[in-house]
Write a structure and sequence with these properties.
Layout (H helix, E strand, L loop, with lengths): L16 H10 L3 E2 H4 L5 H6 L4 E4 L25 H12 L3 E6 L10 H14 L4 E5 L7 H9 L4 E3 L9 H4 L5 H12 L6 E8 L5 H13 L4 E6 L16 H14 L3 E4 L9 H13 L1
Helix pairs in contact: 4-5, 5-6, 9-10
């Protein structure tokens, strides 16, 4: 299908793009912006920010929507946490977002590496905030606890799509398992902001999407992103529909009426897009 005008993005010259690319290359780091072919990567790099992707660039799963390479990953790099923190310091980040490929080959799914990165960032940038976007760790609560014990300010795990489409879209994942991860995080003390994300255009109905929003709320999730699915290639899941911006506004209104504290809903919204701004919304919501 031809992309509608509200999907198209502009390439932005100048800004901090060259500096961001240099820092990433010098630190031998990966970003989900590049690996997942995010449509906002030029804008984010221009602003001097990026979402770090730890534990390599090869995923042990092969989801129908994702551009990240699937294959056999290399062993974890013990120096990666320090390099991520050094890059965040160089870029002057006050809010750092860290995600990873799924590592089903590791006993802890990579939870220990997440914890080390969080602690390095907290130590290296006092007063700054850290957001993690994690895989499901096979649903193991002890691994989720490892991440939460390191003190992230935002714990994000994406549900991605509605219940009916999970097996088709998310290789190796499970709808109930993902809700369980979020439920466990929502019960953690001290309290952490629990966030999730949904895509539209994968074949879901609006009724099914609202059901997924309800399920997320019931699991204790209070912060949500909703964006348009864009197929990375012809080999990925085909786009079933383009949702108009007004409908995204209605999704947000539904979620806020349900009781969510902050919702980012628009065609080009992604889990980590303008994550710092959503965190500000979270802090405002906590005070009200």
């Amino acid at each position: 299908m031809k992309k509608p005008p509200w999907i198209k993005t502009r390439l932005t010259a100048g800004g901090a793009s060259a500096s961001v690319n240099s820092v990433i290359e010098h630190g031998d780091l990966n970003t989900v912006c590049q690996s997942a072919m995010c449509p906002n990567r030029h804008e984010c790099f221009h602003k001097g920010t990026a979402t770090f992707m730890i534990l390599g660039n090869s995923c042990t799963r092969s989801c129908a929507f994702c551009a990240v390479e699937s294959g056999t990953p290399l062993p974890p790099d013990p120096g990666e946490p320090e390099r991520v923190a050094a890059a965040a310091i160089t870029l002057g980040l006050r809010h750092t977002v860290v995600t990873s490929v799924t590592r089903d080959d590791l006993d802890d799914g990579g939870a220990g590496m997440f914890a080390k990165v969080i602690r390095e960032l907290k130590a290296g940038i006092p007063g700054a905030t850290v957001e993690v976007l994690t895989p499901d760790f096979g649903g193991r609560e002890k691994d989720v606890a490892t991440v939460l014990s390191a003190g992230p300010d935002v714990f994000n795990h994406n549900l991605e799509t509605v219940k009916r489409l999970q097996r088709q879209i998310r290789s190796g994942a499970n709808y109930r398992r993902s809700l369980g991860v979020l439920r466990y995080a929502a019960a953690w003390k001290p309290e952490v902001a629990v966030k999730s994300g949904l895509m539209v255009g994968l074949g879901e109905t609006d009724t099914e999407l609202c059901d997924a929003i309800d399920d997320l709320f019931a699991a204790g999730c209070r912060f949500l992103t909703i964006g348009q699915y864009l197929a990375p290639s012809r080999n990925h899941r085909a786009i079933a529909r383009y949702v108009e911006p007004l409908q995204f506004d209605q999704y947000r209104e539904y979620a806020m009426a349900r009781g969510f504290r902050a919702v980012a809903s628009a065609p080009l919204v992604r889990s980590s897009y303008n994550a710092g701004e959503l965190l500000n919304s979270i802090e405002v919501a906590r005070k009200t």
